[in-house]
Amino acid sequence: MLEISNLCRRFDGRLVLQSISLCLEPGEYVAIVGESGVGKSTLLNLIAGLDRPDRGRLVLDGEDYARLDEDALTRLRRDKLGFVFQAFHILPHLTLRQNVALPLWLKGQGGRRAERQADSLLEAVGLGDRAESWPHELSGGEMQRVAIARALVHRPRLILADEPTGNLDPANAARVLKLLGERIRDSGAMGILVTHSPEAAKGTDRVLQLTPEGLHA
Length: 217
Ligand SMILES: Nc1ncnc2c1ncn2[C@@H]1O[C@H](COP(=O)(O)OP(=O)(O)OP(=O)(O)O)[C@@H](O)[C@H]1O
Known about the structure:
This protein is of the alpha/beta class and 217 residues long. The protein is built from 7 helices and 10 strands. Helix 4 crosses helix 5 (140-152). This is ATP-binding cassette domain-containing protein. Keywords: ATP-binding, Nucleotide-binding, Transport.
C-alpha cells in the first residue's frame, strides 16, 4: 500500500505543492492530470524518491521513505520502484536485452533467466526481434518502449510513468498502455500515470486532478 500525506515542496521559497495526500491499494492504477506547470512532475519525482519533500510522509508497505538515508533510498528505488520518465536513461553500450535485464542484475538475478524475462518484456512492447540491437539503432518511440520494458521487468511494487506514450504512434501507445495496466493489476502492484492524454487516463481506475489547491477527484 502507498500512503502519501501532507506532502509539501517549495522551490526558492515558492510553494509548488502543498498538502498533497493520496492512498493507493495494491492493484490500483491512477492517473494524475493537470495544467502545465502545476507540479505533476515535481510530485512524481517526490514519489520516486528522486527529490525530497519539505514536509509530509511517503509510506510504501509500512516504511516512510521520505526519511531514509541515501543508501537505503537507492535500495528501495532499485527493488520496489519502476520508472518510465521522459528522459529514457537507456545505456548506449548495452544491447536492448541487456538494458531491459539491468534491473534484474542489480537485484542479483543474472544469467539466462534474466535474459528470458527481458526477452519476454521486449516481445510485449513489440520489440521481440530487436533484443540484440543497440540503442543508437532505435527511433525515439522504440527507445521509449525499451524504457517501459525495463521499468516492468523486475515486477516493482510501485510503477511511476510520466507521459509514457509521448513519442508513440496510436497503435504502440495503445499497446504500451494496455501492458502497463495489465502488469499493475495482475501483479498487485500500484501505478501512477502522469499524462495530458485523455485516452491514456481512460485506462486507469481513477483520474485525479492536480490544481494549486491540491489533488482531487
Ligand atoms: N528544480 C526546480 N527548481 C525551481 N523550480 C522548479 C524546479 N522544478 C520544478 N520547478 C517549478 O515547479 C513548477 C512545477 O513544475 P513541474 O515540472 O512539476 O510541472 P508539471 O505540472 O509537470 O508541468 P508540465 O505539464 O508542463 O510538464 C514550475 O513552475 C517549475 O518551474
